[in-house]
Design a protein that fits this description.
Length: about 240
């Protein structure tokens, strides 16, 4: 058969297949596409909304805290000294044990601040803030948007009073508030980042402990991790 003939046969076969699928859908009792493709995988697509978001759950899952801390640690690898790295390790341990600071505000999309839309009942922010209050500082951290506010809350100690500065009706005000605690769960990739950072300082025993924490929580060592740990001398 010539090439044109094979192409023609292929097109006819494809047409018949499509026709059969269409007939199956049209004449099935409920006209459901799943009847035509009973083994097809269903996909769900999520569209990011611009609606206001809870400080407590966007994007404050445990994975967010882990991502932020691992990104911070990785950015300092090869630069941070022993003392700085030990402080980061203590912060990761504190977050896993005590959780992160939680206020309970619902934020609006805004520039140069974290603007309050509403507060959650029974949280530290309840009765402390009003709608349209613009939070610009928490403790020693400048707040320029919702993300910077959430990053600040990873560093602030839950249960310890902290000052919050905010604008209300164009007037700068200050309040002392005691954040609650919200669990972040385990932070395996922060431990992996710590392992790499400790290794860069030659602190092999600490690196091995951090990689072991990563292995217990997430997955077995990769071959790269094993090679990384086996190089150099302990300190």
């Amino acid at each position: 058969m010539s090439f044109k003939g094979r192409v023609l046969v292929g097109l006819i076969s494809l047409f018949c297949f499509c026709l059969g699928i269409t007939a199956t859908i049209l004449f099935s009792s409920n006209r459901n596409l799943n009847d035509a493709f009973p083994h097809a995988r269903t996909y769900t697509f999520r569209v990011r909304s611009s609606a206001p978001r809870w400080e407590r759950n966007y994007p404050f899952s445990g994975s967010y805290a882990d991502q932020e801390m691992s990104r911070t640690i990785s950015g300092l690898t090869g630069v941070a000294d022993d003392q700085t790295l030990d402080k980061l390790q203590m912060q990761v341990s504190r977050l896993e044990t005590n959780g992160r600071a939680y206020l309970g505000v619902y934020l609006r999309s805004s520039n140069n601040c974290a603007q309050v839309d509403q507060t959650e009942h029974g949280t530290p922010a309840d009765h402390a803030f009003r709608r349209y209050d613009a939070i610009v500082e928490i403790g020693s951290f400048t707040v320029t948007d919702g993300d910077s506010m959430r990053r600040a809350l990873l560093t602030i100690e839950p249960g310890v009073p902290v000052s919050v500065r905010y604008y209300r009706d164009s007037n700068l005000e200050q309040i002392t508030i005691t954040p609650a605690s919200a669990s972040v769960g385990q932070m395996p990739y922060s431990h992996r980042a710590l392992g790499i950072a400790y290794k860069s300082l030659g602190r092999n025993s600490e690196a091995e402990k951090q990689f072991e924490s990563f292995r217990r929580q997430e997955a077995p060592y990769s071959s790269d991790d094993m090679n990384f740990l086996s190089s150099g001398s302990s300190r």
